Amino acid sequence: MFDRLKKTFSLPNSLGSAEPTQSGHLLPDSPIFKWASSRGYSYIGGQGESFTMTGKIAEKAWKLECGPTSRDYISGNELRARAELEINEDIAVMVMNRSLKQVLEKRAYEMYTDTLQTVVEPNMPEEMRWLSTYPEVGWSGAPPQLWERYAIQAEERSHAIAWLTPALVDLLLSLPLKNSNGQLPFILMLLRGKAYLRTQYTSANLETLAHTALIFTAACESALGNLSLDIPV
Hints:
alpha+beta, eight-stranded antiparallel sheet, 10 strands
């Protein structure tokens, strides 16, 4: 796992300034194009800093996109990923950085206590619903920094333990999640047989992109290897 991380981070930090061709693909001399190709990923550039990257893990398709955010708690561009893992659809685990959890919990409390609001906001992010649906879980043996930095919500604690292997936890803890405004929003989750990732992408930096992609693909590998369809819920 760490050999892969070292190899990934040995690439240039800059994404370069190559312009997309008319077909939407970045020019072959772009660092991000070279990096994606070296990992066996397909890459299509879009307008500005937007792009789409795709690949497969054990024949399961995944996609990572960069573009304008669809969540109001994320500023600027967003990295979002999704994989069709086809694991047990009843397994539900969410990893959220703790500062984001605090922000969403405060917002949910204000919404529910607002005397002028008689119905729940229909556009409430799904993550906010999770906070009230699934309890936060923990277990012994994990680094204390994990609980300081992240909150882990799950319907079944055993599923979280099986998914968040020591190698995946190390990748989560080594992800840079701070800028001048504090911690950046980050969510990694398993839901309805799929894996999802969502985080703020404030600077076009290849190291951050590579690390985020590595976390997501490692999370998919762990789910496929440790959370089979035979695991009870």
